[in-house]
Design a protein that fits this description.
The complex is a heterodimer of chains A (500) and B (493). Chain A contains 20 helices and no strands. Chain A has 500 residues and is mostly helical. Chain A has a domain at 309-500. Chain B folds into two domains: 1-264, no CATH class; 270-493, no CATH class. The chains are: A mainly alpha (500), B mainly alpha (493).
């Protein structure tokens, strides 16, 4: 079996993106659906190739790309998450075509949708590079690739005011957060003279002098990445952008950008955890942000009537659980697994259930002309299949056992209890209760209420397969999480190790 | 074999959801479940303690002893028998529906599967997971097919039980964390041996004790965490009320016996508030169940609410048995779990049958029903007498043991006082049960009740199963106790 170097995955995705872009601009056909199908097919192959990657060389030559690129197990898991997410988003985009066509100033259905299928590939490449980045500059460049392609995608529906507004908001706040990150990177570089994470960690640990400078650098990075992962108080853009963006893009934002943001967060956090004098303060700030995010995300989700907004707040809430796990990083001694594996598994489960929820949302919104919870009324009569899929997604998001989402919550709670963080524990209990309420509201709408429209919803074969696969995976990984966990474990995230 | 028992309702439910089959499938599944449970019951070697019929997979977590593993011991077998019996009766009391009958039937089977899985599980994780799985179908069914304030009741039960489960989860993790790293395991059998070894120092037992007691207590409707139960049972469709109050609620008690008693026995005697020990607090709470909720029950004017509150009240006796921490009390508590499950399910079945005929279950609107529906009347009378604690029924045998447990030589004076007060609960339950029987079945038939027709053949047999088993348990309690004894002795060691 030939083994591919890990970076070939990113190169393949980028090449695929460029080829499709060129093909799109030279083709006369107005039907762009073929592009999406080719992209899905090729991404599937790249996903398969990701299981046959070679490991990093034992010694790294000074000029080689291994100096800023890592091919460890965690990065591979995140790359697979990115690939699967992109495939899912493209399937959603195909379903969304009818709705998108009305929001584009073009003569034919499908015209002008080409880039909508191709840009996600570049986002995907950015996400994958970010997963492997072990150098601040590399991480920043990858992050910008992701963000810039998102700027376009969020504002893609040019005739929708909401989409344009979302685009502007995302652009301004994204640029602002980028500024914070760059400033933070500059401080780190100024303090240490290094950009590679490991070297930064070494230098920081032996730095003599004022801790304030290190703390300041940490706070700048925290603010910058806080925007990306939607942590309170940097979450204000999330609801509007999620609501305004085309639904597949919202799904992508919610899953992809969050996963990449958290991985980067863990990697950047690592050097700071080595500085023992500031560790208590760092953890305190993290716990504060985590608690606020938990409370705000989950409580604000309760009164929402638009499902997209509800999912936006729920995404903030889930960021809260992830941050909570990270805030417990100093606890030491692993009951189950380290914080890195907890975050990795949680994000994997989050990808499955969020994609599933957005897949159903896309189909319902295209067929019901709305994205509110009331448009889900009586869905169990219009399409029992979609209703069941949504029940699975909502149960998993709420954390019902035997679904993938439960193991995620379970691991997080294990971290909290291990850290004896009783305040966060009680916040976690309250917010899970709130989650039961707002997720089950959707279930109630689908089963308890009568539909406003009675036309049955037809589901395209590709979407049906995707949704069935997602349901099956949610149950499978809800019973046996071992495949993901051992993949994460093959190279235990050094974050957890650094804290001890 | 045990996995088959679990798969029967799950596969049938899946088939029903996918649109295959009809009600006969649900009935067949329930009968098959009962048959298999009886086969287990008779093949089980009751002289031995510990799990039998074990099946387990490889660990599901890298480096952690968490796996899908099932097995039964005497206690779980008694609970499985309860589950199977109540499921059979519940399936015959499924309402006639024009639409979505398969959704209803499948969900009922899923609730039964959740209970079965929880009692079968030999792994802490699956023990927890299966119980909570039953939450989703319960929510759907109460909100969709319930009566009265059904949606409010559905929300209340879901959020209460959801939060209770999370507290419970925190308690379970905390319990595991209290063990030394090398002996942390999710295997209930291994945990039982660890519990016998008294691994956790007394002072460290308090926190997990509270988390677990509040978590399990919410699921069991322990005072003051009980307010979800009665409205939910009153609004729930009959089979759901039967399964939930009869079977699923016993999960919490089962968990108390499995985890709290063997692991945290010293916590009961730790002072937590002034001179009051944790045991005293538990006794106060359970007196709240027996006396306060008992009086609330007397004041109910509707049959379904009355039964709902009475089921909350009787949880107090079971807790009294658990809190006695001796074999007599604990055996009584476990037998009472079984007996109460059967009697409350029978009561809900009769009340559901009456609701189908009358629509309102207000005592003022009912009367003289025993003339037109004598069979329902007899079943109600037997179940009501059983739940009062009349000799001859399993409830009597078990309540007697619970009270003996409360007066055992080692009992504190507080415990004895509580037991004396709890005895008054028998009077309270006699008052409301007899009043209800009189109001519904005796006296002059109302205009509508004279025209009622009694149960049809199949449902008669299904309903009769419950009081007959109660009689059997009342006449031969020793037979049922022989299953429980080795397990419970190991628990208290």
């Amino acid at each position: 079996m030939p083994m591919f170097p890990p970076i070939s995955l990113e190169i393949l995705v980028l090449a695929l993106g460029f080829i499709l872009l060129l093909a799109e601009s030279f083709s006369n056909s107005t039907n762009k659906r073929g592009l999406a199908h080719i992209a899905i097919f090729c991404l599937g192959w790249i996903f398969a190739i990701s299981f046959f990657t070679a490991s990093a060389p034992a010694t790294v030559a000074p000029g080689s790309y291994w100096n800023f690129y890592s091919g460890d197990g965690v990065s591979l898991v995140f790359k697979r998450i990115a690939l699967l997410t992109t495939i899912g988003v493209l399937v959603l985009a195909l379903d969304y075509e009818a709705a998108l066509a009305k929001l584009l100033p073009s003569a034919h259905v499908g015209a002008g949708t080409g880039e909508f299928y191709i840009l996600p590939l570049f986002t995907c490449a950015g996400l994958m590079l970010m997963a492997s980045a072990v150098d601040l500059v590399m991480a920043f460049a990858a992050l910008e690739l992701v963000t810039i392609s998102f700027y376009v995608l969020v504002a893609y529906a040019r005739r929708s005011h909401a989409s344009l507004e979302a685009g502007v908001k995302y652009l301004i706040l994204g640029a602002l957060s980028t500024g914070f990150i760059v400033y933070g990177v500059t401080w780190i570089f100024g303090l240490t003279g290094e950009t590679h994470f490991t070297k930064v960690a070494e230098k920081l640990a032996h730095l003599r002098g004022d801790d304030t400078a290190i703390l300041f650098a940490f706070l700048l990075i925290l603010v910058g990445l806080g925007f990306k992962v939607a942590a309170v108080p940097f979450q204000s853009w999330v609801p509007d952008v999620y609501e305004g963006a085309p639904t597949p893009v919202t799904a992508f934002l919610s899953v992809g950008s969050k996963a990449a943001g958290f991985l980067l967060f863990l990697r950047v956090l690592e050097p700071f955890l080595g500085v023992h004098s500031i560790l208590p303060k760092v953890l305190q700030v993290l716990a504060l942000v985590a608690g606020a995010t938990l409370i705000f995300g989950n409580l604000a989700a309760m009164p929402q009537n638009s499902l997209k907004r509800l999912l936006a707040y729920s995404s903030i809430g889930h960021a809260g659980y992830l941050l909570t796990a990270i805030a417990c990083i100093g606890a030491g001694g692993g009951l189950l697994l380290g914080v890195g594996a907890t975050v990795g598994y949680y994000l994997f489960a989050y990808m499955l259930m969020t994609l599933l929820a957005f897949a159903v949302l896309t189909l319902v919104s295209v067929n019901s002309k709305g994205e509110d919870i009331q448009h889900f009324n009586g869905l169990s009569k219009r399409s029992p299949f979609l209703a069941f899929a949504m029940v699975v997604a909502m149960s998993s998001l709420a954390g019902v056992p035997l679904t993938a989402g439960f193991y995620g919550k379970f691991l997080v709670f294990a971290q909290i209890i291990q850290a004896h963080h009783w305040v966060l524990l009680s916040l976690g209990v309250i917010t899970v209760g709130a989650g039961f309420y707002y997720y089950f509201r959707v279930v109630a709408a689908m089963y308890w209420h009568d539909p406003q429209e009675t036309a049955p919803i037809s589901v395209a074969p590709l979407s049906k397969i995707t949704i069935s696969l997602l349901i099956a995976s949610i149950f499978y990984f809800g019973i046996n999480p071992n495949p993901v966990l051992s993949a994460l474990r093959t190279s235990a995230p050094s974050v957890a190790a650094a804290a001890h | 074999m045990l996995t088959t028992l679990l798969l029967i309702p799950i596969v049938t439910a899946a088939a029903l959801f996918l649109g295959f089959g009809n009600r006969t499938w649900a009935k067949g599944s329930a009968l098959l479940q009962l048959a298999l449970t009886l086969a287990l019951w008779f093949r089980y070697d009751q002289a031995k303690a510990g799990y039998q019929f074990i099946f387990e997979t490889n660990p599901l977590f890298p480096g952690v002893d968490l796996r899908y593993s099932v097995g039964v011991d005497g206690l779980s077998l008694v609970m499985l028998l309860l589950t199977a019996l109540v499921t059979v009766t519940a399936v015959w009391f499924l309402p006639q529906l024009e639409k979505r009958a398969n959704l209803f039937d499948g969900s009922v089977l899923l609730i039964s599967a959740g209970a079965t899985g929880a009692f079968l599980a030999k792994d802490l994780f699956f023990f927890y997971a299966f119980h909570e799985l039953a939450l989703v179908p319960t929510f759907l069914l109460i909100g969709l097919f319930g009566s009265g304030e059904r949606q409010a009741a559905a929300w209340k039960i879901t959020i209460y039980l959801g939060v209770g489960s999370i507290v419970l989860l925190a308690g379970l993790v905390d319990l595991l964390m209290a063990l030394p790293v090398s002996s942390r395991t999710f295997d209930l059998q291994a945990l039982q041996q660890l519990g016998a070894a008294h691994m956790i120092p007394a002072a460290a037992q308090i926190r997990p004790w509270f988390l677990l007691t509040i978590g399990f207590g919410t699921l069991i409707s322990l005072f003051p965490f009980h307010s979800w139960a009665a409205p939910a049972y009153a609004s729930a469709p009959t089979p759901v009320a039967m399964l939930h109050s009869g079977v699923l609620k016993k999960f919490g008690l089962y968990g108390m016996v499995r985890l709290v008693l063997p692991f945290l026995p010293d916590a009961f005697h730790q002072p937590v508030w002034g001179n009051y020990t944790a045991q005293d607090l538990l006794l106060i709470a359970l007196l709240g169940n027996i006396l306060y909720v008992g009086l609330v029950t007397i004041s109910q004017r509707k049959l379904d609410f009355m039964i709902g509150y009475s089921s909350v009240m009787h949880m107090g006796y079971i807790f009294l048995g658990l809190a006695s921490l001796n074999l007599a009390g604990l055996s009584g508590a476990c037998l009472l779990m079984f007996a109460h499950g059967l009697s409350v399910a029978a009561l809900f079945a009769v009340s559901g049958a009456l609701r189908d005929r009358e629509g309102s279950l207000n005592f003022d609107k009912l009367g003289g029903a025993s003339k037109s529906v004598p069979f329902l009347g007899i079943c109600f009378a037997m179940a009501a007498f059983a739940s009062i604690g009349l000799p001859g029924f399993a409830n009597f045998a078990s309540e007697t043991m619970v009270f003996f447990g409360g007066f055992s030589p080692g009992a504190t004076s507080f415990q004895k006082t509580a037991t004396i007060l709890a005895l008054w609960g028998v009077v309270i339950s006699a008052v409301y049960m007899l009043r209800a029987y009189k109001a519904v079945f005796l006296g002059q038939p109302t205009a509508s009740s004279a025209k009622w027709t009694d149960l049809a053949g199949g449902a008669r047999f299904a309903l009769a199963l419950l009081p007959l088993t109660l009689l059997l348990g009342g006449v031969f309690p020793r037979y049922f106790l022989s299953y429980l004894k080795p397990t419970l002795e190991a628990t208290l060691r």
